[in-house]
């Protein structure tokens, strides 16, 4: 019979061992619906979009994101950098090992801070050309990633495509379904937790209305699937007659365009029982910089409000536009737009607008400008009051 001291020491060692063990032991499978309920809001990331993207990484990033309320990060990964440099080459083990090392660095920090990691695949050339060899490489890439991460907890999800925007894969639903079906099979048979890990399909043509192209044999009776879709990856704009047009606080027509994409997604879920997630959107025009600060905030508020009303979580494009990963600081301003006349935006009010309690009223012309200006004044005063209260609470104990 061990002494009480020896037993206490044994118990402490056992506790430490369990505490450092893989979270797999304590993680239970999450259905697609359960995973969707936990995604919340977050950002797309660039850590794995370049060979040395992880050089900018520091664990403090995750602590800062958690403090801001972030619940997910989409780990967009270039398959042509990590894995297959061309369709005619064999897998590059060295680059894959570097990728896996990067994943194993960032994933524990995400779990510790209750941030869901979603790995997504990018290879623009493969999506455009979609040759048989590229399809084989796509499936093999996912098989290797799945094997390497098979024992990761169920909080990790695999998003098969980041975006299918143009090319043969978009234009050939049969090929899309074949690639998707084979990738799912490769993941499901790779061992560990992958038989019940959430796999997130990519919309065949990016938008929610293309989800109907996914063969029902893929989705029927599946409880551990989701689907990703998006439309405003580069933000709204002022191209008259276009799907993404937005001005002022948003006219009834502007809002209906937003509402429709959500109806498409909700309708598909009702038919298939597969929940969805928005994998990329921006609240500002990242190309022509056509929206001013107030319009950006209005769109951010309206879009996020409609998303909440429909129970659809999202990731915003992208983290680096709001947070400097090199200095671990939230950005105060950011120059956006690829035109000769970019606009400088104040970023904190945009983040605040994402959490607005209700959408702005439908107004036009000068009424819209007045409303937005008044709202900004109110929010500025509220933030100032909050900072004052935080300072007062910190000073009061010291004075006592």
Automatic annotation (TrEMBL):
Lyase as UniProt keyword: no
GO terms of biological process kind: glucan catabolic process
Signal peptide span: 1-23
InterPro entries cross-referenced by the UniProt entry: GH (IPR017853), Glyco_hydro_5 (IPR001547), Glycosyl_hydrolase_5 (IPR050386)
Any one cellular-component term (Gene Ontology): extracellular region
Annotated stretches, region: Disordered: 377-400
Top-level division of the source organism's lineage: Eukaryota
Keywords: Carbohydrate metabolism, Glycosidase, Hydrolase, Polysaccharide degradation, Signal
GO molecular function, a single term: beta-glucosidase activity
Residue ranges with Basic residues bias: 383-394
Domain Glycoside hydrolase family: from-to ranges: 54-316
Family annotation (PANTHER family): ENDOGLUCANASE, PUTATIVE (AFU_ORTHOLOGUE AFUA_5G01830)-RELATED, GLUCAN ENDO-1,6-BETA-GLUCOSIDASE B
Family in the record: Belongs to the glycosyl hydrolase 5 (cellulase A) family.
Protein name (record): Glycoside hydrolase family 5 domain-containing protein
